[in-house]
């Protein structure tokens, strides 16, 4: 769809030029957003969360975006919603971002105050710069520039800016469910999730799912004296160690029978794209003094993106203080999580692990198993119009087509939008995984800001040329 | 040796009659000793430790015991020493006991104040009644009664009442080393360590040794995100679980190559005595809702007394709080102790385990190993004159010979007396392992008091008939 008398590409160029010209203003806008310490882990009464919502509201005041609403599940931090639906016949795109951030304390190793952003070495440092206030502002400003410069957007836009992404999105399923009509759209364009590497064109086409298990193993009604009882009694730590170690072969590959049976076969294109990914294993492991593990028949990059995992995340039991205590512990605990790929049902994956563990349990040893929330893997179909449009835009900008990459992480919101609204998500954020998100000295590259201010206007123009029926 | 005009057995009978007649007075003496909360875990300035020393000094005041000394290593709680050396030519026996007790808090589940002893169901309840103030007073009162009633003891006596047994006897090696002349004796008779079962005649002829290992395993310089890194990186908990689980076969028997190679072969008599021990496995395991483990080719009682063990005592690593944290932990820890039997050198046993573990370590995974104090196993030779004398005394009293039992626990002081003074220890205490030592509601059986007041005088008489050369 074209706006007024301009062609779509003329309009996109004008919008991009406007954004480029106002780059310092937009950078200051990101900085102002980062100065608000909108940490969702703090209770809902945190004034900073209200400040962040006011910031978003003020930012669109006077624009053609309207219908501003705070969507809430009754408790928790609300989602900021606004829309512009002035492009009848054009696709309707929900733009996803989030205004909440992870906690940050200056004395955790920050070189500058996490909530007083600083620009150093062509990067802006501060909590939320990378995750995900920078990319959220890019999306916001792109829509505002289209409305102002081109007098309208090439697509209908529904802004959906969540406030609980960093605490696991507890309200999101309810909010989406309760606002199905309001949120109806053809697809989601996400400012969260973006580039696999800095300076290398890529687009995410999937993310792994997640399932968790917590194990409590009991061998006796109380800890026992290792002198009086030792040698003839099951030890809870020894039994737990046997269970946990049974999950992997010595090389680190998964040893749970059938665990990978449900996987959707990995496509030749996935293998091709993974092989083409410029992953430097030596540099990778040197970066954290780590040691390679996992099925040696697969490359590390394949293992981290195309295959499922089982990881023990915590273990504890018995005496953990100073010195020696000659005790046979009666109880031991472990936490496990699995990253799942397409085809794997979280409940079924959990059941496979539990069955595997119970088969190893000596008679009389008790094992309790509980679990947290699940998320299925997400896959964007490779002919999805949003993906094809984004590939065109990136190819034009970078002179080469972006690699399709599957993320090793988990992006639960894509799954919720798919299940409740039946729509797919393209992640088009500008952050990369090396920017210390969730860690001290989080930063966002100014190169990424420029990239976003160029590609977001072009992508909206490209999608605007599609009919809603294309989705 | 006989005292004055009485035969040894006449004298012993008179002493035993005197003690039996004064049973209530002696029971009150135990109660008074228990009322002093002489907890060695509290700093050396604790007034109760001084009260306990004053109590012992007052108890022997006016008797022929003299040369009272407080033996100290410079810091810590001193050992109370006194002697009577009026039986030239007769053996010199060191009598070992301890005046310190474990901590106790009423609200840990005590039915009565731990330091206000109560008599219920023919038992005296209170901290230290069983471990080991009851048996220490029996030994004390026996010596005092011999001196008073028979005007002399059948043996030369050196009382050695330690103040740090419950905190691992840190000063004991130094105290014994620095007082070798003063402490010279033919053998040690211990009020600590005694009966394997209530109401069943037995004598301990050995105890297992102890060695410890603490493991710290590192796979990376920091914890990693399980989404970004999972599937291609070693996980410290998974690696630690593999190490710990490698120590035992699935049935619970030890899997460390060569671990039992250094064992002194188990004698036919040991097997015979272990087989004769009235051990009810079903009752044993039901008592703590426990599960049998260990080499099924050996009986549980054999495994607990004649064979070595390796037990994980504690394990920790990664996230152990509420909920789910998707982390690949970079570090994990475990504590291990071994119970050792005759022939096993603690340092060599530790080295065997460490070699076994390092052989399993993937290249690049780091393992640090540290250790605490060691103790060798203790064995009393089966023709030791103190043992033969005690067997005679018990046989006479009970109408059947006592079983020889090896304790699964560790009694470091026997080893120290053996190494520094070259003398053996017979444990002739009256406590049994089911009396809640180190736990709430510790008690001592009044039946055991009566038994001790009868057998201790007879044992001293019997040993007095030996020449010092017999040792």
What does this structure look like?
2 copies of one chain form a homodimer. With 471 residues, chain A is an alpha+beta fold. Chain A is 35% helix and 20% strand. A 6-stranded mixed β-sheet of chain A has the order 1-2-6-3-7-17. In chain A, strands 11-13-9-14 form a 4-stranded antiparallel β-sheet, covered by helices on one side. Chains A and B meet through strand 10, helix 7, helix 8, helix 11 and strand 11 of A and strand 10, helix 7, helix 8, helix 11 and strand 11 of B.
Descriptive tags:
homodimer; 471 residues; alpha+beta; Aminopeptidase; Alpha-Beta Plaits; six-stranded mixed beta sheet; four-stranded antiparallel beta sheet; elongated
Topology, element by element:
The structure is a homodimer of 471-residue chains.
Chain A: H1 8-21, H2 23-34, H3 47-60, E1 66-71, E2 79-84, E3 92-98, E4 118-120, E5 123-125, H4 129-149, E6 156-162, H5 172-178, H6 180-183, E7 187-190, E8 202-207, E9 209-218, E10 224-225, H7 226-229, H8 236-245, H9 268-276, H10 281-286, H11 300-305, E11 309-318, E12 327-328, E13 331-340, H12 346-359, E14 366-370, E15 378-379, H13 385-398, E16 403-407, H14 412-421, E17 425-427, E18 443-445, H15 446-464
Parallel strand pairs in A: 3-6, 3-7, 7-17, 8-16
Antiparallel strand pairs in A: 1-2, 2-6, 4-5, 5-18, 8-15, 9-13, 9-14, 10-12, 11-13
Helix pairs in contact in A: 1-4, 1-15, 2-4, 4-15, 5-14, 13-15
Low-confidence stretches of chain A: none
CATH homologous superfamily caption of the largest domain in chain A: Zn peptidases
**N-end to C-end Cα span of chain A:** 16 Å
Question: Multimeric state of these chains?
Answer: homodimer
CATH topology of the largest domain in chain A: Aminopeptidase
Report strand order across the widest sheet of chain A. 1-2-6-3-7-17
- Give the C-level CATH assignment of the largest domain in chain A: Alpha Beta
Question: Which CATH architecture of the largest domain in chain A is right?
Answer: 3-Layer(aba) Sandwich
Which class best fits the helix and strand makeup of chain A? Answer: alpha+beta
Q: Helical region count of chain A?
A: 15
């Amino acid at each position: 769809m074209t706006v007024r008398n301009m062609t779509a590409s003329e309009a996109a160029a004008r919008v991009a030029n406007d954004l480029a010209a106002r780059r310092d203003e937009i950078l200051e806008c990101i900085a102002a957003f980062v100065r608000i310490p909108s940490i969702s882990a703090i209770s809902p009464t945190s004034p900073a969360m209200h400040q962040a919502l006011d910031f978003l509201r003020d930012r669109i005041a006077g624009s053609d975006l309207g219908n501003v609403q705070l969507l809430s599940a009754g408790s928790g931090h609300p989602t900021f919603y606004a829309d512009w639906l002035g492009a009848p016949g054009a696709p309707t795109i929900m733009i996803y971002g989030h205004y909440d951030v992870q906690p940050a304390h200056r004395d955790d190793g920050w070189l500058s105050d996490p909530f007083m952003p600083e620009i150093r070495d062509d990067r802006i440092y501060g909590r939320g710069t990378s995750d995900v206030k920078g990319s959220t502002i890019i999306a916001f400003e792109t829509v505002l520039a289209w409305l102002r410069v081109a007098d309208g957007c090439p697509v209908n836009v529904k802004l959906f800016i969540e406030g609980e992404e960093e605490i696991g999105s507890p309200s999101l399923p309810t909010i989406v469910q309760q606002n199905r009509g309001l949120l109806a759209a053809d697809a989601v364009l996400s400012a969260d999730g973006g580039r696999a590497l800095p300076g290398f064109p890529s687009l995410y086409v999937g993310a792994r799912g997640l399932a968790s298990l917590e194990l409590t193993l009991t061998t006796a009604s109380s800890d026992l004296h290792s002198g009086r009882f030792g040698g003839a009694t099951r030890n809870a730590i020894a039994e737990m160690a046997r269970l946990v170690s049974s999950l992997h072969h010595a090389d680190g590959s998964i040893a749970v029978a059938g665990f990978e049976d449900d996987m959707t076969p990995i496509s030749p294109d996935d293998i091709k794209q993974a092989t083409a990914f410029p992953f430097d294993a030596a540099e990778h492991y040197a970066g954290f003094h780590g040691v390679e593990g996992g099925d040696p028949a697969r490359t590390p990059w394949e293992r981290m993106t195309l295959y499922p995992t089982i990881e023990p995340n915590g273990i504890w039991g018995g005496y953990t203080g100073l010195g020696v205590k000659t005790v046979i512990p009666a109880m031991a605990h472990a936490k496990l999580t699995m990253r799942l790929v397409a085809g794997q049902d979280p409940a079924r994956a959990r059941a496979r692990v539990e069955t595997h563990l119970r088969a190893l349990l000596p008679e009389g040893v008790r094992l309790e198993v509980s679990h947290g929330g699940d998320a299925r893997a997400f896959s964007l179909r490779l002919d999805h119009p949003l993906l094809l449009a984004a590939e065109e835009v990136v190819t034009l900008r970078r002179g080469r087509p972006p690699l399709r990459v599957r993320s090793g992480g988990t992006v639960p919101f894509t799954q919720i939008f798919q299940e409740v609204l039946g729509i797919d998500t393209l992640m088009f954020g500008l952050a990369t995984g090396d920017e210390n998100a969730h860690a001290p000295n989080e930063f966002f590259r100014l190169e990424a800001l420029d990239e976003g201010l160029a590609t977001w206007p072009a992508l909206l123009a490209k999608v605007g040329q599609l009919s809603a029926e294309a989705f």
